[in-house]
Amino acid sequence: MISTKFIKSSLIYSIIGALPLASSFILLPFYTNLLSTDDFGVLMIYIVFTALIQIIVNFGFDNFVPINFINTSDNPLNQKNYISTAINSLLIIGLFVIVLAFFAGEPFFNVLNNILYKGKSIDFFPWGFMAVITAFFNSMYKTYTNLLVYQQRPVRFFWINIINFSLTIGISVAGLYITPFSLAGPMWGRLLSGFVIFLLSYLFFLNEFGIIFHKKYLKPIFQFCYPLFLYLVILWVLGNIDRYIILFFMNKTEVGIYDFAIKCTLLLDFILNGLGAAFLPKVYDLWKKNNLTESTPEVNRYYNGYTAVILLIMPLFTLVIPLIIPFFVKNNAYYQSFDFLALLTVGFATRGIYTMFIAPVLYFKKTKVLPLIYFITAIIQVILSIILIKHYGLIGAVWAAVITKPIQVLFLFYESKKFFTFKFNKFKIIYLPSFYILLVIIMEIFIDPKFRNWSALIQLVVISLSVLYIYRNEFSLLLDSIKQFTRKK
């Protein structure tokens, strides 16, 4: 049975873990009301650029450090040496990237502007350089908060995320009101909050693991992180290259409208990421204690519950977001993004099985398979995006993303089954999510967009009844756990 302690920690990791990018969702009304649509589009380009630099600086350490913490739990000295070496490697890489960007960033951006974006100039100084520094700060923070999840330290996780969230919101909003229709507020808000959380994270690392740098640990760290780094770069391409393709074929305003739709899904994305981060340490711990290389009913309960939550949240999200956004966002230009919301949201239907297939890859350090998997899917998505955006505009970018996600899952399953035996209920993990995807696609094709809310309501009712029936055992266990928890209170 899933413990009440797990439920409590899951709530903290899910809700609080969603705050860093939930802040982007909360800032949307201020961005859209106090920036022009062109400036909003440019801001999103810089934020996406920050994400790429963060991947480069981080080099996969945010995955290596927490997984190594579990794998070396029986050897504290080895654990300390590995983690401290990894953290100081991150520091060295980050400082090198900042220096390189200072000298080479502007020439590189000039080349891009002259070749790809004539008349749509994107400047490197000051905002691009600030994005690089922010990425460095966020890399240390992301690595440390991931470690806190695996250390099962929800209180510290709570406070460090609250600090980051409060500073980002506070500084950004103040800056937007002081200098409206300027990128100064949002960029300084991200940079200054990033500096504070970087400082806190690094000081906590120093206090716990010290300053250690052993060259002999670099090879195993590199062997784990290098394939993961390539995978994350390709994953960035899958998740973000469409903005640059849109900018090439269209303009900054269209980038802003499309990214607004993506930002509307951020809260859902990070709630699901938080839930995944909450239960995966439990899964890894079970594998380690029992020396498992195959699925078990106990582990499958976590994946089943995760998938059930995903399926229930998606239609609710699609229904609620278009109803509440107009109360906060007054620029009607952004409302056309609601037409993309159902299809963008349905992409999360594969998240449960995706997590099931990628978990063994990370735990058993088989990350060398990831770059090839995602390189192939990235090529597919880029080709689809170019063709579909050129001919159909923004909806083409949406369809390219929807088509690519199931392909990722298939390739991931093909590789992970080579070293891990999967046994699970296909109705819960595959068939029901597939049914929901087909339901949404059919309704999107045949039902007029003006009946969007009715479509979402029908989807919510149908999938809720289906989930309650097929996942009835999991809900029964959950209710029992909640009852035990309330009795203790």
The N- and C-terminal alpha carbons lie at a distance of: 19 Å
- Residue share in β-strands: under 5%
Approximate shape? globular
Mean pLDDT over the residues = 89
Please tally the β strands and state the result.
0
Low-confidence stretches: none
Number of structurally distinct domains: 1
Class derived from helix and strand content: mainly alpha
The helix tally amounts to 19
Helix content: over 70%
SSE string, helices as H and strands as E: HHHHHHHHHHHHHHHHHHH
Instruction: Indicate the radius of gyration in whole angstroms.
Output: 22 Å
The largest sheet, given as strand count, sense and whether it forms a barrel, is: none
From the structure provided, what is the oligomeric state, counting identical versus distinct chains? single chain
Write the layout of secondary structure elements.
Blueprint (H helix, E strand, L loop, with lengths): L3 H14 L1 H16 L2 H22 L2 H11 L4 H40 L11 H24 L3 H25 L5 H26 L8 H32 L2 H13 L1 H25 L6 H32 L12 H6 L4 H13 L6 H23 L1 H23 L9 H21 L5 H19 L1 H17 L1
Helix pairs in contact: 1-7, 1-11, 2-7, 3-5, 3-6, 3-9, 3-10, 4-5, 4-6, 5-6, 5-8, 6-8, 7-8, 9-10, 9-15, 9-16, 11-12, 11-14, 12-14, 12-17, 12-18, 14-16, 15-16, 17-18
